[in-house]
Amino acid sequence: MSNGPRKLILINAGKYDYAEVDLEGALQIVGPNNTGKTTLINTLQFLYLNDQREMDFGAYTKEQTRDFYFRSQYSYVLFECLSSRGSCVFGWRGTSRTAGGDPERFLYFGPFEAANFFDDKGAVREPRDINARLALKQYETIKTQQQHRELLLNATAGNDSGLGIISLRDADKYPHFRETLKNLLSLSTITQEQMKERLLMMADIRPEEVALDARQMFGDDYDRIRSQRESLIRFKSRVDAIRALVANHAELQELRSEAVYRWTDLRRQREQFELEHKCTVDSLRSDVATAEEKARLADEELLDRRKDEAAHHEAKGGWDAQLRALKKEKEGFRDFVEELERVAVRELERETHCLHQSILEGEAETREKAEQKVQLFSEQVRDRENTLRNADRLIVTALRKRFKDQDLDRAFSILNFNLLELPMGADGVEVLSESELSRRLGEVLQGAGPEGYSDAAVKLRYPASRRSVTDLGDPKVIGEQLLEYQSSLNRWRGILQSIQQREKLQAELQSKRDLLEAKRRELIRWEEYSKRKADEPRLLAELEKLQEALTQTASRIRLLVEASHTQSEQARKSREAIRDAENSFNAVM
Predict the structure, then answer these.
(1) Are 386 and 423 a contacting pair, CB within 8 Å?
(2) Which of 128, 134, 376, 461 has the most CB within a 10 Å radius?
(3) DSSP label at residue 50
């Protein structure tokens, strides 16, 4: 079996989504026009021509040809070849529209396997996945035209990478071969003479020569050719062993392919395992973050609720203190009667005022004056008592029978008005001669006028304020005068007493003032207590609300403590799960 291409495979190239053509033996392509026959034939240039500039696709430019055969990075032109080193695949792959540029050439050893290029769903694999699957098949990229040429030709001293796909004795004849191939691929435009010249050129025979001299043609290589012929005969004699070796080689290639498949499958499983592990760890880390965030929020709210609880306890302490104070005050005012206390305060105020006035008056008056006033008002009280007691025996009563009240007022304003208040009899006035008394009073009345008295010896005016005779006979008026004199007497007696007992009165005044102040304070405390007592229902209601708030806060605190502990425990378990997952992952890897 000679070296050269055995299969042509097109993937998303030209007019074909997928085409596989067997090139072994004679091949006849039949079909209507514009069905892709020329497309298949011209693809041979991608194998045999190392320079894209030398390729001939008719009237189409290089860019049009590239866009036609290599639409994207999923477009492939592949040649499965038999080389001096066994089966190999020579391929071209397109690039993405964004990357642009010429298609990429590559080579790997082994037969073409569709699984290397298509996934289980029949879709073309990604370039990096294909490269990975071909890595164990000595995959390499052909980067230069020179490298492409060296791979096509036989291995020589200067070219140890040659695969012998093109068998030329002289590597320098490769340009001639390239031109000949181009002409063969375009038979519709080449003449017989041109074809003859190309064949003679390949054989290094001048067209004008008419004979073929083998020794002259082969020169020193003739003996080498004969030696190779004998070697070929020996080779044919051992063809069975060689076939067994080739079969073993094919089996080896199959094992290699299976190993690559196993490795690729393991890599896929590894990637799946890594992805699942990453998802698991990410989920656990998300659980940790969520649990820690919930624990943080619970702790923050717990801190606020503890502050609320402290504030509630503080407020409750205030309400309890007020209620205890009310209870204590209630016990203290158990025997307190407000009206009696207010009466006692008023009485103490009166007594204090009297004592204060007595002390002030005692300080303003002298002892002698006070004694005189006491004596004076004592006599007046005594006189008014006698007058009231002897009202029907008074001398004024007897004189009213003879004189008018107006005349008596004028006469006794000059004489002594108090004489009219004396009783008739041995204890007062004894009238020895009524006629003589009347005559003398008449003489006095002769000189008494409306404004005053006047006679030959004297002239005087009545006092500005004088008493009236009409008052002497009226018991009511006498009684009022008696009360007035008694009041003045008592006042002056008090003044005299205050003068005599000033220190004692001052001590008594201070004692009563202290008692009065204590009573007033007690009343103030009672009034304040009454106000607070009226506020007691509100305090009890507030205390009840506060107790309810404390109960709710305590319940919430218990729930928050449990929630914080639960979330912290959940975060701890998730972290342990992450650690276990990492350990398991590391153990598997």
Answers:
(1) yes
(2) 134
(3) S
In a domain, 81, yes or no: yes
- Rounded CA-CA distance 44/41 in Å is 6
Strand, coil or helix: 15: coil
Enclosing domain of residue 103: 4-167
Sequence-ordered alpha helix ranges (H) in 333-428: 338-364, 367-389, 395-399, 405-414
What pLDDT sits at residue 229? 85
- Alpha carbon of 395 to those of 265, 424, 434, 469, 470: distances in Å? 162, 6, 12, 11, 13
Euclidean distance between CA atoms 199 and 185, whole angstroms: 15
Report the pLDDT value the prediction gives residue 211, as an integer from 0 to 100: 46
pLDDT value for 389: 58
Cβ pair 163, 84 in contact under 8 A: yes
* Residue 519 in domain: no
DSSP state letter for 471: G
Q: What is the pLDDT of residue 37?
A: 78
Q: Are strands 76-83 and 104-109 parallel, antiparallel or unpaired?
A: unpaired
Give the Cβ contact number of residue 107 at 10 Å.
Answer: 23
Strand order in the sheet with 86-93: 16-22, 4-13, 76-83, 86-93, 104-109, 140-142
Q: Of 415, 428, 419, 370, whose CA–CA distance to 396 is shortest? A: 419
Number of Cβ within 10 Å of residue 66's Cβ equals 20
Predicted confidence (pLDDT) per residue in 146-197, tens digit:
999 888 898 887 777 888 888 887 778 888 888 877 777 766 556 666 666 6
Mean pLDDT, 10 residues at a time, over the chain (589 residues)? 88 91 78 73 87 83 88 94 92 83 92 94 93 93 91 81 84 81 69 64 58 62 82 87 87 87 86 86 87 86 85 75 68 65 76 71 64 73 64 59 62 60 65 69 65 67 60 62 73 70 65 77 71 69 78 86 87 86 81
Angle at 480 between CA 475 and CA 485, to 5 degrees: 120
Q: Which residue has the tokens 């004028």?
A: 410
Cα–Cα distance, 580 to 26 (Å, whole number): 65
Give every CB contact of residue 534 below 8 A, 6+ residues apart in sequence: none
In a domain, 76, yes or no: yes
CATH number of the domain within which 34 lies: 3.40.1140.10
Length of the chain (residues) = 589
Reference 366, options 504, 507, 488, 498; nearest CA is: 498
Unique residue bearing structure tokens 């206390």: 341
Say which residues have a Cβ less than 8 Å from residue 255's Cβ, sequence separation at least 6: none
Is residue 66 domain-resident? Answer: yes
